[in-house]
Amino acid sequence: MKSPPAPPSWAAQAPEAEMRASVEKVRSATRAHSKFFEESLPLIASENLLSPYAKEMLISDLHSRYAEGLPGERYYEGNRWVDEIEVECLALARRLFRCNFADVRPISGTVANLAILKAMAETGSTVGSCRLADGAHISSASFGAFGLRGVKPVYYAFDTNRMQLDVDATKRILLQERPKLCLFGLSLFLFPFPLRELSETLKEIGALGWYDGAHVLGLIAGGQFQDPLHEGCTVLSASTHKTLPGPQHGIILGETSDPELTRKLQSACFPGVTSNHHLNAMAALSIALAEHLAFGEAYARQTVANARALGQALNDRGFDVLCADQGFTRSHTIAVRVEKEGGGEECSRRLVDAGIVTNKNMLPGDKSSKHPQGLRLGTPELTRLGMQEREMDRVAEILHQLLHQGKGVEAVRAEVRALKKDFTTLKFCFGAGEPAYRYYDLVGH
Question: 222, 257, 289: which is the final residue of a domain?
């Protein structure tokens, strides 16, 4: 009889010294990453900074624990204080958004979207949505959550000049297609949706309104955008780390008196699309919600003011900023067509070399997501650091010097560092004034 084969080589113990080198490589890269952002101008619309109290939650023992189920109904022991945290988190969410339902177990915005689809849409059913080319998120695509759930999109009519729904044409589409669930949400989110204008049509066809507020969640909570749960939508799903300066996590909110819908939503979250719900992030979310109740109105107002100021300053310098006749935006985001500057891919690479972090983005008329003609710029992070309208003018001038005047990358990089050096501590939170990018060096050497 043949002897059993020897275990594969990868099963052998790795040399400690070699693995220590790998650990130090990762730590060094992480410190370099933090240093880069500390000296850069982050203009990604979907990113923000955590407060020191929220960061503390992320490295707590909660990270190592499980808590499947609802408070008081867990499948694991040891959750006495987890239940206390989650009950407080739910109460803060309901208070901040003036709603009667919240679930903080989704671990991301896309997972929250999957839970909504599981609870509120049947496989093969139709769901109203915007097209990706009009700014929708990839979770509403056939290769995203829609495809995974097996639902068919019904696309609204979109006015690309106004970056807004064509209300009359959309009403006709809804009356003809009669979807039972209608999603309102964008990844390039410049203006509020005309929810009130569409609410009667939704009632007529028996459709529930669903709002993906991932990008504008903090603006909604701060009273600086629309209030979808009181303008015709039944549920709201979102990530919690964009204009709401929380951890990377998810949330579902609702205003409903239907106990069956509540049951379906809770069941969709667990056991539907999550098991353990990342307890450290849930605790960090609690901190972020409390901070937003204290500071969110001022933060949201300045975030929008900065976005509009940046749009105006870029427009004054010859950039093709979308929707100039509408004030550019009512949110944290502006969209800039940079075809004449070389396209979104080329411009974003030139900008990051100079320490300006943006992302290329499809705009109406684009055919390729890899080679679009647009840039998406956002103000959440710079506002979190205390920048105001005058700094937005300086940011616009720096972009102008690099992309229009041909100023060298190193010279522009020096200007970026000079501007940023006075804006590296957090505002609008408990623990304001703490360093934003180097708060924790866990080992200390």
Answer: 289
Per-residue pLDDT reduced to its tens digit, 144-154: 778 778 899 99
DSSP 251: E
What CATH number corresponds to the domain at position 364? 3.90.1150.10
Provide the token pair at 126: 């139709």
pTM: predicted TM-score of the whole model, two decimal places: 0.95
Per-residue pLDDT, 9? 66
Whether the link from the prior residue into 192 is cis, omega within 30° of 0, is no
| % of the chain at pLDDT higher than 90 | 88
Where residue 445 falls among pLDDT bands split at 50, 70, 90?
Answer: very low
Q: Tell me the C-alpha to C-alpha distance, in Å, between residue 364 and each of 82, 136, 161.
A: 46, 11, 9
Q: Is residue 13 part of a domain?
A: no
Confidence (pLDDT) at 147: 79
Tens-digit pLDDT profile for residues 255-293: 998 999 999 999 999 999 999 999 999 999 999 999 999
Sorted by sequence, the CB contacts under 8 Å of residue 174 that are 6+ apart come out as 128, 154, 156, 182, 198, 201, 202, 205, 207
- Return the structure tokens found at 251: 């949330």
d(CA 381, CA 350): 20
Residues 278, 314: one domain?
no
- Exposure string of 253-292, with b = 16+ CB inside 10 Å and e = fewer, is bbbbeeeebbebbbebbbebbbeebbbbbbbbbbbbbbbb
How far is 128 from 180, CA to CA, in rounded Å? 8
Q: Are residues 254 and 403 in the same domain?
A: no
| Residues 307 and 389 both lie in one domain | yes
Please answer whether residues 210 and 181 qualify as being in contact, where contact means their C-beta atoms are separated by less than 8 angstroms. Answer: yes
pLDDT, tens digit, for every residue of 327-357?
A: 999 999 999 999 999 999 999 999 999 999 9
Residue 38 lies in a domain: no
Q: Which domain holds residue 241?
A: 53-289
Which helix (DSSP H) or strand (DSSP E) does residue 409 occupy?
Answer: helix 409-420
Q: What is the pLDDT of residues 203-234, one digit of tens each?
A: 999 999 999 999 999 999 999 999 999 999 99
**Residue type, position 312, single letter:** Q
Can you give 348-391 as a three-state secondary structure string? Answer: HHHHHHCCEECEEECCCCCCCCCCCCEEEEECHHHHHCCCCHHH
332 touches 304 (CB < 8 A): yes
The token pair at 105 is 């177990």
Q: Which residues pair with 236 in a beta bridge?
A: 211, 253
Answer yes or no: is pLDDT of 3 > 80.
no
